[in-house]
Recover the amino acids of this structure.
């Protein structure tokens, strides 16, 4: 959908109010920032800054999907700036998954913790690419737009990142 | 962990809820900072005052000309035709414009004038004095 919008296939429509955009997108941006930064405190700061920038920028977007692309781009840039300036220190626990048997939930949570720890070891751009593509479910073109790079670069980054992740996790298993 | 497992965990993470308190903090901070800015800024006030002033000036300068009041009829009314009925309806006379006091002409100073008229007869000359 976002890809189609970026390519101009979705007709121009008016975007809604700022408050509506915040309500619709705040969880997405907060989660994305958390996946890249590794802690909720920094993720909150980034999400706040993203929406304040949106407020300053105004909702002058050709369609709703363009708002999403813009928000992802700003979120990723702010996260990358933060990872450059300082290492994320404290890691807050993730939310437990609902509707799951206790044992399965514990197992899944353990896997998530390991995967998050492995993600934290990736270079920031690769981590951002994996978060957007694999966790947020964006298309390659959308990830490329958010990261400001080409589709080919994004594919390469994701491929390398997956190999690295497998390597890190297998090393832990061994 | 296999790649399949990794993808499964990624999918799980996609559905994961965000902590409510984090979400509330972000929302509160954004609301506080954006709603404060939504108040009318001094620039907006200045712009509004400027527009209002321009409108007022425009109204004053370009208002339509007020038609001049008709000059009151100062002459005497003459009945147009011989009235058939002995009783004539009262004629509404507009009050005559008050006459402006004209400055009285000053009496001209009397200058002695003499006119001399010569006749064909060189012996006769008519002399008019005053």
């Amino acid at each position: 959908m976002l890809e189609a919008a970026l390519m101009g296939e979705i007709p121009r429509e008016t975007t809604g109010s700022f408050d509506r955009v915040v309500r619709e997108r705040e969880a997405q941006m907060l989660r994305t920032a958390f996946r890249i930064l590794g802690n909720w405190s920094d993720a909150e700061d980034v999400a706040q800054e993203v929406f304040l920038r949106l407020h300053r920028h105004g909702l002058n977007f050709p369609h709703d999907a363009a708002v999403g692309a813009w928000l992802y781009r700003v979120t990723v840039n702010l996260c990358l700036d933060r990872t450059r300036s300082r290492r994320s220190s404290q890691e807050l626990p993730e939310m437990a998954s609902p509707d799951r048997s206790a044992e399965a939930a514990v197992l899944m949570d353990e896997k998530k913790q390991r995967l998050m720890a492995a993600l934290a070891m990736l270079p920031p751009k690769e981590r951002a690419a994996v978060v957007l593509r694999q966790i947020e479910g964006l298309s390659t073109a959308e990830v490329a737009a958010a990261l400001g790079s080409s589709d080919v670069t994004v594919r390469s980054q994701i491929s390398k990142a997956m190999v690295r992740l497998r390597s890190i996790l297998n090393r832990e298993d061994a | 962990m296999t790649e399949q497992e990794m993808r499964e965990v990624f999918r799980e993470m996609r559905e994961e809820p965000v902590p409510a308190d984090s979400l509330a903090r972000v929302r509160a901070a954004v609301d506080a900072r954006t709603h404060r800015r939504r108040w009318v800024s001094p620039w907006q006030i200045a712009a509004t005052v400027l527009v209002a002033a321009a409108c007022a000036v425009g109204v004053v300068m370009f208002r339509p000309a007020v038609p001049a009041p008709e000059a009151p009829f100062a002459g005497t009314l003459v009945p147009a035709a011989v009235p058939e009925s002995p009783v004539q309806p009262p004629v509404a006379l507009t009050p005559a414009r008050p006459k402006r006091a004209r400055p009285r002409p000053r009496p001209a100073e009397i200058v002695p004038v003499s006119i001399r008229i010569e006749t064909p007869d060189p012996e006769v000359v008519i002399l008019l004095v005053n």
Q: What stands out?
A: Confidence is low (pLDDT under 50) at residues 1-16 of chain A. Chain A touches chain B through 35 residues (CB under 8 Å).
